[in-house]
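>> received
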Amino acid sequence: MQSQPPQDKPWFHPSRHEDRRGFLLARNRIISDLRLWMAQHGFLEVDVPAMQISPGNEAHLHGFKTELIGPDGVVHKRYLHTSPEFHCKKLLAAGEKQIFFLGHVFRNRERTATHAAEFAMLEWYRALASYKQVIDDCVALVQLAAAGRNFEWRGIKCDSNAAVEWMTVSEGFYKFAGVDLLPTTGNRDALAAQSPVAFRDDDSWSDIFSRIMVEKVEPHLGNDKLTVFYEYPSCEAALARVCSHDARVAERFEVYAAGVELANGFGELTDAKEQRRRFEEEMEIKQRIYGERYPIDEELLEALSMMPETSGVALGLDRLIMLATGAIRIEQVQW
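>> returned
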């Protein structure tokens, strides 16, 4: 585990740069390997615009606002994208089958050892594929980046070559928090009655779910081996479709290594009416908590009705590089 470099000099001071340079060269090698893997598996790289009508419509996701001023002086509100997802789905509607984006995205109100306001994301989509296929992609790419090296984060170790652990969200909540999750889905009082962590009186079901997840469940995921954490409750589906075998859960998954979330993916929802309902519900929550809301991208909803059955996943590239190189803060692996 590498130590934190001294902070008394600017990042561009030669001594600090030299301390980080090994991480940065490793970053370049990993990105080259990932791009090569994508090309070898039939994916087309797409370069989507960062400036969008909507940055995304999740309540706790915060975009950067900007303005587009036309030649006539008319001002149009725009946002930097929090993900390339909306534009990628429009390309899938246009007829592309296997695409990926590797570039920067922007999220406000985020700053920790593993969060940055601007960071690199690798996001890809497979039309006419199950979400288990993109899970296999994700595991292969994480292992490719590791290159046989074990991951370690804050004392938690993960053997990148070990057999992958598959665990449903309900299994994880029962094993690590003692919560029988699915019978409580959407019932705030039922989940509160089982909660092993403190919560506020005005916390919703999703708030309590998140508190239990962060405090009791997440630290155990990806210990010793990579964990595929899948079948999220349907009320936490985001842009995922509901599972055909159980409407209480959705085709949403995350991949963890050493207690760190690396990727979040879906069997993508293509029901525009249901997606609008979810967006509007999320924006009501955002308005209540943060006093603002983002517009809904009507073109996206139109594209969903034209998009084939698709699965996709977003992978936090900087986090993956951190774990693959032994860096302890995200800025150590950012040029």
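>> The domain at 14-164+226-333 is CATH 3.30.930.10 (BirA Bifunctional Protein; domain 2).
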